[in-house]
Structure to design on (340 residues):
């Protein structure tokens, strides 16, 4: 082998061995004429799907090379199916990103064996909004407040142990003494709402306020649903009549559990790239995402779809992940007990 060929082979091996390294090909050269796959960890019609499809329609023009972005649903296990695939099997060249459950990065911390990824190794791209999650019931359930939730059983839909609908209901049962019974197995939040309308279940938790306004405002305006509990660090300006779960909690232990569950709300609907993507492409995706959040055409489309836009960048999401992973182990143990 000639010296030149040897040096080229060594360089090629080094490029493979150094995840996150800057590639020899420019970002524009890489993305030019390509398709960027945006995978959605939930089924069609819910909040994750709605946000992702509006973003997919506008983000490509902000990426050097202007790739076409194609949105595809990959539901399963509260988005853990997608999270695991992104971590273990997805291309690591920047051609694939995904939007996963806001709580998904914390599943390994909760000893969920179905979460086979290291959350710290994802490349966080950004989110479009901070979320306010709600527990709600159909008016026919005759449940109007926390006292009713403690006195009567409420059948609520679930989308997998890792998802907000399940976690919030389980922790509320333990920390607040509510009696919500989870009927699991729905592929996405929109499927739960359809089940509520059919009478299969009578309520749900983990229902984002932005999603209600964007996709089911008719249920609210017609009085067919009642908003019962608010999972958020502070009350949304439009939800001052809906109690914060931490205001209802009666012990420090209960408040600690609830605060742990609330923390991921700041993750919104996170967009992530697999580990090992060249750093220049990660940086380009992060910049393109935040540029999209200020794009007048995107903001107009988001407003028409009823979507709130209060974005966070990838570095902010990384900091949230690190902060949650520093939670007192005693609090985590209580949450594990409540959600298993």
């Amino acid at each position: 082998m000639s010296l030149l060929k040897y040096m080229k082979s060594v360089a090629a091996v080094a490029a493979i061995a150094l995840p996150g390294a800057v590639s020899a090909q420019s970002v524009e050269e890489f993305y030019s004429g390509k398709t960027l796959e945006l995978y959605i960890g939930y089924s069609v019609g819910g909040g994750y799907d709605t946000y992702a499809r509006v973003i997919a329609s506008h983000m490509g023009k902000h990426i050097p090379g202007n790739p076409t972005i194609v949105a595809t649903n990959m539901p399963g296990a509260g988005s853990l199916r997608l999270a695991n695939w992104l971590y273990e099997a997805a291309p690591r060249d920047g051609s694939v990103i995904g939007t996963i459950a806001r709580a998904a990065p914390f599943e390994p911390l909760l000893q969920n064996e179905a979460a086979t990824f290291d959350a710290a190794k994802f490349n966080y791209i950004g989110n479009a909004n901070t979320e306010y999650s709600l527990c709600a019931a159909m008016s026919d359930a005759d449940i109007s407040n926390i006292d009713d939730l403690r006195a009567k059983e409420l059948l609520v839909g679930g989308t997998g142990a890792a998802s907000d609908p399940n976690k919030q209901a389980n922790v509320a049962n333990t920390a607040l003494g509510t009696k919500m019974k989870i009927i699991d197995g729905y592929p996405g939040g929109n499927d739960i709402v359809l089940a509520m309308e059919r009478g299969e279940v009578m309520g749900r938790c983990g229902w984002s306020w932005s999603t209600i306004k964007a996709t089911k405002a008719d249920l609210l305006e017609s009085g067919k649903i009642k908003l019962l509990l608010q999972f958020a660090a502070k009350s949304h300006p439009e939800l001052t009549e809906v109690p914060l779960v931490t205001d209802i909690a009666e012990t420090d232990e209960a408040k600690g559990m609830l605060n742990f569950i609330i923390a991921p709300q700041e993750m919104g609907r996170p967009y992530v790239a697999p580990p090992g993507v060249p750093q220049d492409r990660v940086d380009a995706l992060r910049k393109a995402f935040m540029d999209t959040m200020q794009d007048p055409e995107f903001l107009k489309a988001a407003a028409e779809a009823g979507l709130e836009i209060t974005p966070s960048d990838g570095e902010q999401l990384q900091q949230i992940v690190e902060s949650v992973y520093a939670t007192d182990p005693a609090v985590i143990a209580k949450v594990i007990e409540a959600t298993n």
The domain at 133-265 is CATH 3.40.190.10 (D-Maltodextrin-Binding Protein; domain 2). The chain has two domains: 3-130+268-326, 133-265. The two ends are 59 Å apart (CA to CA).
